[in-house]
Amino acid sequence: MTPAQRSNLGRLLNPRHIAFVGGRDCLTAIGEAQRRGFRGAIWPVNPARSEMAGHPCFASVGDLPEPPDAVFLAVPAPAAVGVTAALSRAGAGGIVCYTAGFREAGPEGAALEAALVAAAGDLALIGPNCYGAISYLSQTALWPFAHGGDSPRGFGAAIVTQSGMLSSDITMTRRGLPLTHMISCGNQSVLSLEDFTDFLIDQPGVRAVGLHIEGLRSIPRFHAVALRAAANGIPIVALKTGASAIGAALTVSHTGSLSGSDDLYDALFARTGVIRVETPPELIETLKFLVVAGAPKANRVAGFTCSGGGATMLADRAERIGLSFPAVPDTLKPGLAGLLPPIATVSNPLDYTTPIWGQADRTGPVFDKAMDLTGAAAAVLVQDYPAPGLDESAGYYHADAGAFLRAAQARGLPAAVLATLHENIDPATRDWLAAEGIAPLLGIAEGLGAIRNATLWAERRADLAAAPPAPLAPARPMARLRGLDEAESKALLAAAGLPVPAARLCDGAGLAAAAAGLTFPVVLKMMGPRLAHKSDAGAVALNLGDSAAVLAAAQAMPARVAAYDPAAVTDRFLIEEMAPKPVAELLVGLRRDSEFGPVLTLAAGGVLVEILQDSASLLLPETPERIGAALSALRIAPLLAGYRGATAADREALLAVICRLQSLFLSRPDLAEIEINPLFACADRAVIVDALIHVLA
């Protein structure tokens, strides 16, 4: 996005005048602009009509009184290119190109889209093939269908989606999410999701940004924008759809299948502090909590219900997602017990029981004391309000909610009133709570997930401020690749100072002499271009104690390999000293992804790769601290730490090997992939037992 396009995007979203170019679709769009409350000039453009929606029509964009700040364009695709060129020459601000029939329609449409981009110049063009844009702050709608949404207090969440229908659905939600902007970005031919996000995080009133992502046009650009958002204190919440099972071109290794594109999006989001959610309700509830209540400073929540079942549901869900409800210390329980009925049990979450329900003079002190005794950084009260017509008891609910919000406000705690069932907070109560800065959350899973998401964002933001990640290493186009065999791969690694077993490479006739120069026991491996996975082919013999055993293994091996693949048999062997028994086996893979650039994958190694599917991927370059954290997140981490009193691995040596592999990979652009499987994590060292490297041919 150029500076001129950024300025024009500001004009588009805060226009003085809007031109609507087209026919029937523009009638609806004009109605939506008026419904939204747009007070500027409306200029329909249609040579076949004298008026549209009560506004006189202009025959062409060249007849407009002045260059329009904003344009809603709904004419056939070929005509859209010419209109766009005319608007660009005239100095218009921006266009919502509702018109479809471009890249999504095939080669002819792709050519039209290229022409559209060339015609746009410095225009801020949204689309084509999109619903458009709504600014709830400037009361501007460039939108082709009925829409909802509001920003009653002048702040909220800005949302950018790559799905038109989802954007429309979110505007219609009755969950009480205040919105500042909605942008449906369509084909992103001129401006991309990254551009819109970069613009929105600087806009007054935008407290969080929600994204629906199918794919990103530029991973490095998104990386930079997301880091800037975190530095500005603007959370980004992403609903990523369209997961890919395998994101790597290479299929001979495990690394590609363990680091598909969805895993790499996880790595990107974790690196930049973006909150990933799984469903639209979780997206909305997370944004709502962040916008209305804010992010907790720590993972300590005080929970309140007037039901034992409600307290149990809170505790169960919190344990599953890692949300902490700290217990009241035993020595301090009497102070809280004295404020509760005798039937109540001091706990967190706390069921304060019905004898004091609805009595703010009784429940208020309970909320105050419990928040203090638990050291809460956030608070949640479960309340399901009665349906209309059955609301004789509503005053009791409001009394407790009022006492709760006053206790939270007095302590500056982000807080929520949480309905167990989605529909059980009426609009008036929802709006009252939000006006008081208390998030009205809907659903146990989505509500507690929202609080945990906000907490994780605050923690990650603090980490980013202390140690900002380096810019991503660039992606490189992959040409033809050549695979090195294990002997060649290990020679390359040894030359870089990495630990590999002492070894000799020879043919069958030289086996005895080669073995004599090594310390027994040794391993014998047949080398060949069709033996990437030697264990599967029977091309490995372990624990050979003398030269006679080596010769016997070499005589038996060709038959086993031939049964696997007759063309794989060779007369080339690697003999190497047996590595010491490891504490655990790891896979360490480095590869170049066409979108994300260099990637490091850590996983349980050896035969456990397929069984456990226990892996973590990081985008490079990465710090030793973050690599260490990824190791600690693996399910085999307890083995590395010395499970149940067993010997622990030398973690310092292990990290040193992984970091040296990263340095080698980043310094050698000719390396396409390195896979170490297994890397032995031993008590006193780390040893590369098997390696597979691909280089650019």
UniProtKB/TrEMBL annotation:
InterPro entries (UniProt xref): ATP_grasp_subdomain_1, CoA-bd, NAD(P)-bd_dom_sf, Succ_CoA_lig_flav_dom, Succinyl-CoA_synth-like
GO terms (BP aspect): tricarboxylic acid cycle
Gene3D superfamilies: ATP-grasp fold, A domain (3.30.1490.20), ATP-grasp fold, B domain (3.30.470.20), NAD(P)-binding Rossmann-like Domain (3.40.50.720), Succinyl-CoA synthetase domains (3.40.50.261)
Pfam families with a match to the protein in the record: ATP-grasp_5, CoA_binding_2, Succ_CoA_lig
GO terms assigned for molecular function: ATP binding
Keyword Nucleotide-binding belongs to the record: no
Keywords on record: Tricarboxylic acid cycle
Domain CoA-binding: start-end pairs: 12-102
Family label: In the N-terminal section; belongs to the acetate CoA ligase alpha subunit family.
PANTHER family, per the entry: BLL6376 PROTEIN, COA BINDING DOMAIN CONTAINING PROTEIN
This protein's name: CoA-binding domain-containing protein
Organism of this sequence: Pseudogemmobacter humi
